[in-house]
């Protein structure tokens, strides 16, 4: 099966910091990409889709680099409530989930 | 409200027993999926179905079975052949195979 690789972390950052996660994927033909957020002992929830031109949703920015086969998620002005595991997802058939990067935002 | 409902939230299995986890969706999604998640680990795909009366094995199908007799329902049976069933089981659905998946809130299965 196609692979999706993420740095497992944990990333421990102070409130207000900017943090970035990268994710690499193996299938150069993949067309759709997503970021999910999973809180401890909860189900994953869709955070944002990743478009080829990059996209922004408030403090969150997602970017795609097809040439290097990686996608990134940037979180600005980190809040305590951003503490979670962030899953990178690549649309093969079916979707391929990375194992996630754990973020802890510290007061 | 549309969504995915998994039941029960917690389930206990005795040795040698089969148990069935329920997953129902009213989102009119064609595709449904079952994942297993162990503590501190990522999601692993058990089975998926892209259309009624059809399903495919995922990465860890051994010891599990599914059916897809109705569009809304995709039950998962954990058989006695699954020797280490203790895990968090997540059901998901999507409009199509390459579309974002929406998850139920999961079932935690434990061995008595």
Number of strands of chain B: 11
How many helices of chain A? The count is 0
Distance between the termini of chain A: 40 Å
How far apart lie the N and C ends of chain B? Answer: 35 Å
In percent terms, what proportion of residues of chain B is strand? over 45%
- The sequence of SSEs of chain B as H and E is EEEEEEEEEEE
Helix/strand-derived class of chain B?
Answer: mainly beta
Features:
heterodimer; A: about 110 residues; mainly beta; six-stranded mixed sheet; 11 strands; about 0% helix; globular; B: about 110 residues; seven-stranded mixed sheet; four-stranded antiparallel sheet
Task: Outline the structure in words.
The complex is a heterodimer of chains A (107) and B (112). Chain A has strands spanning 4-6, 11-14, 19-25, 33-38, 44-50, 55-57, 60-65, 70-75, 84-91, 95-97, 101-106. Chain A is mainly β and 107 residues long. In chain A, strands 2, 4, 5, 9, 10 and 11 form a six-stranded mixed sheet that branches. In chain A, strands 1-3-8-7-6 form a five-stranded antiparallel sheet, with no helix packed on it. Chain A starts with a strand and ends with a strand. The model of chain A has no long low-confidence stretch (mean pLDDT 93). Chain B has 112 residues and is mostly beta strands. Helices cover 0% and strands 50% of the residues of chain B. Chain B has no helices and eleven strands. Chain B has strands spanning 4-7, 10-13, 19-25, 31-37, 43-51, 54-57, 64-66, 76-78, 87-94, 102-103, 107-111. Chain B is globular and about 35 Å long. The mean pLDDT of chain B is 94. Classes of the chains: A mainly beta (107), B mainly beta (112). The A-B interface holds A 1, 31-32, 34, 41-46, 49, 87, 89, 91-95, 97-100 and B 31, 33, 35, 41-43, 45, 48, 58-59, 88, 90, 94, 97-106.
């Amino acid at each position: 099966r196609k692979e999706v690789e993420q740095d497992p972390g944990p990333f421990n950052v102070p409130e207000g910091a900017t943090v970035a996660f990268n994710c690499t994927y193996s299938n150069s033909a993949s067309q759709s990409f997503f970021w999910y957020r999973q809180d401890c002992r909860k189900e994953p929830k869709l955070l944002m889709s990743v478009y080829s031109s990059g996209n922004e949703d408030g403090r969150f920015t997602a970017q795609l680099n097809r040439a290097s086969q990686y996608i990134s998620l940037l979180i600005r002005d980190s809040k305590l409530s951003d503490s979670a595991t962030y899953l990178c997802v690549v649309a093969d058939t079916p979707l391929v989930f990375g194992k996630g990067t754990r973020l802890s935002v510290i007061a | 409200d549309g969504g995915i409902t998994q039941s029960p939230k917690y389930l206990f299995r005795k040795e040698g027993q089969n148990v069935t986890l329920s997953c129902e969706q009213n989102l009119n999604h064609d595709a449904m999926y079952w994942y297993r998640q162990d503590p501190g680990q990522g999601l692993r795909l058990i089975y998926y179905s892209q259309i009624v009366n059809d399903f495919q094995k995922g990465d860890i199908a051994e010891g599990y079975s599914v059916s897809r007799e109705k569009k809304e329902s995709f039950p998962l049976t954990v058989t006695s052949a699954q020797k280490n069933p203790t895990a968090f089981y997540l059901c998901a659905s999507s409009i199509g195979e390459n579309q974002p998946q929406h998850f139920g809130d999961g079932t935690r299965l434990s061995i008595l």
